[in-house]
Amino acid sequence: MGQIGYIVGGGSAVVEKLHFATESMYTSPNNSSSGVAATTGGYGETMGFAMFSTTGYKMSFSNDSWSAWTNPGTDGYRKFLPTKWGHQYVGTGANVTLGWAKYNDTSGALISTFNGLSTVGEENLEMGQDWGYMLGNYNGQQNNMTWKFNYATDAITALGITAQPKGHNGQSSGVCFSAAATIVSARYGY
Question: The pTM is what?
Answer without folding.
Answer: 0.84
